[in-house]
Each structure stands twice: as structure tokens, then as C-alpha cells.
Amino acid sequence: MFRYLERHFSRIWLLVFSVDFLILLSVVVMALKTIAVRPGNTDMGRIQLSYAYFIAFILLSLIMLFINELYSIEKKYQPWLLAFKCFISFTLASFVCYFLFHRVLFREILFHFTCTLSLIACGSILCWRFMSYRIIPRINLQHRVLFWGTDELNKAVVREILADAHPKFKVVGFVDSNPALVGSVIMKQKVLGRIKDLDSIIKTEKVEKLVTPCSQARGDFPAENLVDLKFKGIEVLDVHTFYERLKGKILLNGLRPSWLIFAQGFKKNKLTKLQKRTFDILISSIGLLVTLPVSMITALLIKLESKGPVIYQQERVGEDGRIFNLFKFRSMRKDAEQDTGPVWAGKNDHRTTFIGKFIRKVRIDEIPQMVNVLKGDMSFVGPRPERPYFVEMLNKKIPYYNQRHSIKPGITGWAAVNYSYGATIEDAVEKLQYDLYYIKNYSLSLDVIIILKTIATVLGRKGSR
């Protein structure tokens, strides 16, 4: 479990999350003791039920903190914004807890108790977060990474680490087979020595990970040295595997078929398919029920504003290249592509109606796609389905593009929550890198993370057009 967390989250993220959890647990334990010793509390059934209340409070608080992007460790908020996000998170968590338990658990005091608990938890978390801004920079929690080779691909990856001031990795330098480069500085990183000096450099610089080129001449490949390093606990990664962990996407530049063939992941067995289908039906059924009032109002406004159908159907490419009709609330005027033919939607698209601009901004137009999920055309989470015209064009121009159709498309996806709306071939390449990562690393936990990130995206109204 810890290795899984280490691969997908930074040590800083794990530290912040762990302390948040311990703080909430401490607050809850003190509150539970207060309830247990109150005079007249002899109803053990209700006291036991309070355990469920406190567990729900902890889980909901952590979820709300996540949705409000307070686990985006690379972001450092202004004090007032951090306090506001924290307050909103605990207010929402408290509201849901009160709604769930007010009929069965200490109704006479629950409202005041919930408010008090929320304020204490919020204040405690805020104090820790303000302290963390001072403490964490002084603690060396980043993985120390050494790059073998100064080729363009390695330099591009190092450039991304430095540009983001990445919380998970710290570049200690390069090693290279060219003696003329030793001692030179590339992107403010020193070439520390030659390949033969690996062992001493790793000891001196306390290196934890060695990133190797995607291809290397056999005569220059120090297999014995690398085996020794592996047995000493140094993680040896090729540049594509490292980039996958760094950015949460699969780098297409220089990607060889052999990497995809031998890489771990891409699991599609009967159990995972059944699990995903069950999850899709459950989430979509709940989603359609919860959004029914919004859907009825939206349908009425669309009908009042302009002529044409309320539900717009458009051909999309699904699993294994199968064509299906995707349902959406109509957000553009009727016959929007009559003069232009198929085109990607642009920013401030003139074809969009007044109501259409709003429902696209808050993603209400995508609610009917949950019917596609129930029909089995789509999954709730997956690569966004594209139109046949664009699929045919992109298949010719982008390697591995057709592989995104190896699973069902989704209403939301890893690309959707990590990259804004795409309207160019370059955008399609970027989104494909995220889609391939999702297909390779699919799990139910990843789907849950994507749904939570989607809620944050919708609330922040990011990435829509």
C-alpha cells in the first residue's frame, strides 16, 4: 500500500494528508469522550451511532479539503484564501453530516455540536497548514534524482521539473559518457561525472533514483553497475517511466512500442470490467436522480430560447471504434455546422446560445450522457469520445491515437481534469498522453479521484467552452 502511495503521491502530500487525518482524529476522539460522559447518556445505541457520525465527519472533511484543492501541494495560497477554502470545506462537511444524522442522533444538541466541532477542526487544520508553509521547506522530503545522459529528451524532462518546482523530485545533476561535458552546467544542473563514476556520485549526492535514456548503445550500457545499484536500493527508471510518475501522463516523444508492450498495467479482466460497469450504473443512476430538477429547468429554458430539439444527438466513436449517438442538452443554435462542417468548439463560440454558454460553463449540457452510460455506450470515467471525422484525421497524424478506443469513453476523465478543452492537434496530443496513462493505470480508486477532481473543476468552472 505504501509503495502504491509513494508512486502516485509526493512525500509532502503524504505528510500533509497524514497530519490532517491525525488532527481530525484527535478532535473527534475528544468530542466522542465529551458525548460519552454527558450526564444522562445511557442510550448505548445512540452512543454507538455517534461513531458513524464521527467517521462520516472525518471522511467528508478530507473529501471537501480535496475538492477545494487543499491537497494541491504545489499551490501556496494567500492566508485569507486558505482560510476561506478551509472554512468552506468544513461548512459543507458539517452540513452533510447534520443532514444525514439529525433525525437519529442527539437531535437536541446536534446543530450546535456540529458547528462547534467544525470550527475547532477548521481552526486546528488552519494552524497546521500555516505552520507547514514554514516547516516543509526546511525538511528534505523530495526524491533525489540523477539523470544519465544530456540528450534532448532528458533535458526536456528536467526542464519540466525545474519549471514546476516539483514537490516530489529534486534534480541533483547529470552523468554522461562524454568526458568533455564533465563539470559543465546544463540548465543550472552540473554534469557530475561519467557513467563509470556512477557509484561514487550516487553515494556523494545521496541519489535515490537514476533515470536512464530510452535507448542506449550496448557498448556503453553498464549492466553490472546498474544491477549493483538496484540491489543497493537505488531505483533505476527509464525516462518514460519516470515521466509517467512525474506528470501523470505517458510521454509520446520518443516512445517505443516495446515500452508499451512490457510496461505494467493495461489490465482488463472480467473482474475489473464487472467492477467498472457496476460503478457506472450506480453513479449514473444516482446522478440522473439528483440532477432531475436541474434537467427539467434546463430543458424548459432551451425550448423557450430557441427552436430545435432539447436533446442534441451527435455521432461519436466508442470502444473498439464503434459509432454511437451521444446525448447532450443542445447548447448551440440549430444547424450550427450547416455552413462550416465539423469543427471543434472555440472559445466564445458565436454558435452558442445564451443558455448554452451557461450550461456548457457548468457542464450541465453533459447530464444526458449518463443515459449513454446506462445504455452501455459509455463509462462514467474514461477518455472523452471524439467525432468520427476528427478520429479519422487524428489517427493519421498522432501515433497511438487509436489505442484510446480500447476502452469505453467517459463523461469525465483523467485528461479532462488535468487539461483544458482542446481545439487543436497539439491539444489532442496532450490529452492522448493523459488518456494513455488512465488506460494503463485504471483502478476504481483512480476513478473516484477523477470524479472528485471533476467536482472541483466544475465548481471552479475551469476547462469548459
Report a brief summary of the structure.
By secondary structure, the protein is of the alpha/beta class. The protein has helices spanning 2-8, 11-36, 44-67, 79-101, 107-135, 152-164, 198-205, 223-231, 239-247, 257-262, 270-290, 292-305, 354-361, 369-375, 388-397, 414-418, 425-441, 444-460, and strands at 143-148, 169-175, 185-186, 189-193, 209-212, 235-238, 311-317, 323-329, 379-381, 410-412.
Topology record:
Blueprint: H1 2-8, H2 11-36, H3 44-67, H4 79-101, H5 107-135, E1 143-148, H6 152-164, E2 169-175, E3 185-186, E4 189-193, H7 198-205, E5 209-212, H8 223-231, E6 235-238, H9 239-247, H10 257-262, H11 270-290, H12 292-305, E7 311-317, E8 323-329, H13 354-361, H14 369-375, E9 379-381, H15 388-397, E10 410-412, H16 414-418, H17 425-441, H18 444-460
Parallel strand pairs: 1-2, 1-5, 2-4, 5-6, 9-10
Antiparallel strand pairs: 3-4, 7-8
Helix pairs in contact: 2-3, 2-5, 3-4, 4-5, 11-14, 12-13
